[in-house]
């Protein structure tokens, strides 16, 4: 854990840099938190799955919900504390939201160390809640199953996201039928096998691009049939092409 990792567990609005690979062990907060990586990528993990936030996303963690963090790339983390009275208007589970221009400015002001007039900080938090209520959930959440058969399949894919095996082939490896596994993906995780694997690969792509891998190399190493398929999948989830995303990361490092 890097020297600034404690900044994610303090009790006031703050800003801190995490080095690549720095992590924060699972913990809970009495209040809620918004975590905005204005540079780098922040992964938040719970027993339910993993949420990944690049610089155009913000992670919400509700009060009392155990979670841990890991940074990918030099990550500038902005942390905004949300008192329980405001948390009632926000989801009761972790979530990733897009960052509107207004929300971004609110988060930067709250964590910028600037002295604010009495009551201004609370009013800015209320603005943040209003913005989040209108934005809706993003697709950068990868759920994890409870069923042992499904966990065996997802475990194989976590170990090798580029694994090209079909669901039937994976099923033979773990001793479950394709039909059973397909049903479990739908009922437990709320998505198809192909959708889950695509989200897994996109999460890994976010990290590889932060580390400086080329778009074509990222597509190949993560198992996409061709760069076009990767670009389409990445853009559908992240809202911008991998090339534009990587260019914005480089601008943020200057």
Automatic annotation (TrEMBL):
Q: Name one Pfam family in it.
A: HTH_18
Q: Show the InterPro entries listed in the entry.
A: Homeodomain-like_sf, HTH_AraC, RmlC-like_jellyroll, RmlC_Cupin_sf
The answer to whether UniProt assigns keyword Transit peptide to this entry is: no
Its recorded name reads: Helix-turn-helix transcriptional regulator
The protein's UniProt keywords, in alphabetical order, are: Transcription, Transcription regulation
Source taxon at top rank:
Bacteria
Q: What sequence ranges are listed for the domain HTH araC/xylS-type?
A: 151-248
